[in-house]
């Protein structure tokens, strides 16, 4: 069985309209991938930064996968939440990125979006802090139909990740 | 010849800190790594001198941001051996300063994962302090001059339980290091793109 190590940091976020943010993240991989060690999902701290241009999560990622397939390569899915002045968390962005298959250290930037409804729904959600969310968040990372889904572009999530492969060469696989 | 472990060699320094609102800082550091890892040479934890910032601002790692560095120039010389990439070492940092009564107060926690690739690396680690869990606690800590702290600074190197932490990020610490690996390839690992043969 070939092995993949994903070791890095969910660094933080920038370019969101508000900077008091947290992030719920998970790694999704295809069938044939087995999680051997580590947490494949987590929730970061909430940061209210001094420098509002960059939100710091500094959340460690250390995951060990075993795999019999090269299809279904792992993806990182993120859901960003904004904390309002009442301490409630409101959805602020969805995004995903593939974990690079090339071994080495990589800096990734995930562009995010959030669903929007009609003008009046948007107005009420801005008053009551109830942003529209997806019923099924698989849409974020799966190539499912997004026809008639209207979204607003949000900020960027920053990830720093190292990929270490093991025993791929024995199967004639080059990454 | 096969080796039954691989090694990691780290030479570097905790160079300086950039805290726009704080000065007169020192840093406690410790190294944490997984169960399949061991430090075979060097000190795993230490404490730097207390440093007053330079009058000249310099680049802080954050876009368009200059700040006056508190230089530590503190050496890091470490060697590890391991049998598993899982648990790759992290450097845990805690920066302290003094409040107006001269009491030690924490100015930032941070965690740096060591690079997974050999070479020279410059890392700007963002730092953050925990916020009081309620405004009453915040008021009390302001009156008593006791800022919230993490019970164990290694908390910042862990994934579990982070959702309960509310923090304020402030400042960065600059670390430069060169990293070498031994027997990683012999162990079956690939941590760089393969060159064409």
Question: Could you please describe the fold and organization of this structure?
Answer:
The complex is a heterodimer of chains A (175) and B (197). With 175 residues, chain A is mainly β. Chain A has one domain: Sandwich (Immunoglobulin-like), CATH 2.60.40.150. In chain B, 5% of the residues lie in helices and 49% in strands. Chain B contains 1 helix and 12 strands; from the N terminus they run ββββββββββαββ. In chain B, the strands form 3 sheets. Chain B has a 5-stranded antiparallel β-sheet with strand order 3-7-1-11-10, with no helix packed on it. The two termini of chain B are 22 Å apart. The mean pLDDT of chain B is 91. Classes of the chains: A mainly beta (175), B mainly beta (197). Chains A and B meet through β1, β5, β6 and β10 of A and β9, β10, β11 and β12 of B.
Give a short overview.
The complex is a heterodimer of chains A (175) and B (197). Chain A is 6% helix and 53% strand. With 175 residues, chain A is mainly β.
Topology:
The complex is a heterodimer of chains A (175) and B (197).
Chain A (H helix, E strand, L loop, with lengths): L1 E13 L6 E8 L4 E5 L3 E3 L2 E2 L6 E14 L7 E9 L5 E10 L5 E12 L3 H10 L22 E16 L9
Antiparallel strand pairs in A: 1-6, 1-10, 2-4, 2-7, 3-6, 7-8, 9-10
Chain B lengths: L5 E13 L7 E7 L4 E5 L3 E3 L10 E2 L6 E2 L1 E14 L7 E9 L5 E10 L5 E12 L4 H10 L21 E17 L6 E2 L7
Antiparallel strand pairs in B: 1-7, 1-11, 2-4, 2-8, 3-7, 5-6, 8-9, 10-11
Keywords (chain A): Cell projection, Cilium biogenesis/degradation, Cytoplasm, Cytoskeleton
GO biological process, one term (chain A): cilium assembly
GO cellular component, one term (chain A): MKS complex
